[in-house]
């Protein structure tokens, strides 16, 4: 992700947080949905095939942690001491996935009981996964 798109997400997030307006939140979601990929962090495992996107528990509910770019994913992973995200040489494994495939994966996780998605944890936004189809439909209507 280039730094301009990076800044756009940040600006849209700040605007949505400060205004609380539906159209500002829609613009943030539209920008996220337009990204070519979404990025997940994963814990280090013995084999790469065993690695899965991280699902953490907050307020007693399972959430998948998702990032709009690899850098944010790596930065967040490094903030968790002994979280198992950083290997012995200081590397963080990030799973980058086509945005539509990521959405499909999130919907499959919801069917398995995962409550929500947390974008860019530390300075981001979140939503119950069950709301994703309606959010996507709302954003697409606004772009027509």
Characterize the structure shown.
With 144 residues, the chain is an alpha+beta fold. It has a single domain (3-142), classed as Trna Endonuclease, Chain: A, domain 1 (3-Layer(aba) Sandwich), CATH 3.40.1350.90. It is 44% helix and 20% strand. The chain is built from five helices and six strands; from the N terminus they run H-H-E-E-E-H-E-H-E-E-H. The chain has helices at residues 3-19, 22-34, 70-78, 99-111, 132-142, and strands spanning 37-41, 55-58, 61-67, 94-98, 116-119, 125-128. Strands 1, 2, 3, 4, 5 and 6 form a six-stranded mixed β-sheet that branches. Strand 5 (116-119) and strand 6 (125-128) form a beta hairpin. Helix 1 runs antiparallel to helix 2 and helix 2 packs across helix 5. The two termini are 25 Å apart. This is SseB protein N-terminal domain-containing protein.
Question: Which helices and strands appear, and what pairs or packs with what?
Answer:
Blueprint (H helix, E strand, L loop, with lengths): L2 H17 L2 H13 L2 E5 L13 E4 L2 E7 L2 H9 L15 E5 H13 L4 E4 L5 E4 L3 H11 L2
Parallel strand pairs: 3-5
Antiparallel strand pairs: 1-3, 1-4, 2-3, 5-6
Helix pairs in contact: 1-2, 2-5
* SSE arrangement, N to C: HHEEEHEHEEH
Shape summary:
globular
- Helicity, as a percent range: 40-55%
Q: What would you report as the Rg, rounded to the nearest angstrom? A: 15 Å
Within CATH, the superfamily carries the name: Uncharacterised protein PF11572, DUF3234
Number of strand elements? 6
Number of helices: 5
* The number of domains: 1
Main β-sheet: number of strands, strand sense, barrel status? Answer: 6 strands, mixed
Low-confidence stretches: none
CATH class assignment? Alpha Beta
Mean pLDDT, to the nearest integer, reads 91
Protein name: SseB protein N-terminal domain-containing protein
Organism: Hymenobacter gelipurpurascens
């Amino acid at each position: 992700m280039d730094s301009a798109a990076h800044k756009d997400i940040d600006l849209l997030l700040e605007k949505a947080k400060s205004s609380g307006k539906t159209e500002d939140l829609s613009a943030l979601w539209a920008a996220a949905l337009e990204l070519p990929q979404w990025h997940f962090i994963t814990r280090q495992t013995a084999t790469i095939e065993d690695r899965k996107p991280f699902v953490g528990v907050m307020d007693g509910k399972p959430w998948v942690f998702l990032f709009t770019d690899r850098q944010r994913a790596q930065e967040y992973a490094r903030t968790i001491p002994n979280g198992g995200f950083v290997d012995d040489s200081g590397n963080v494994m990030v799973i980058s996935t086509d945005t539509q495939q990521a959405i499909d994966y999130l919907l499959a996780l919801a069917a398995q009981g995962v409550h929500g998605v947390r974008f860019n944890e530390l300075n981001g936004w979140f939503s119950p996964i069950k709301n994703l189809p309606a959010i996507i439909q709302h954003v697409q209507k606004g772009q027509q």
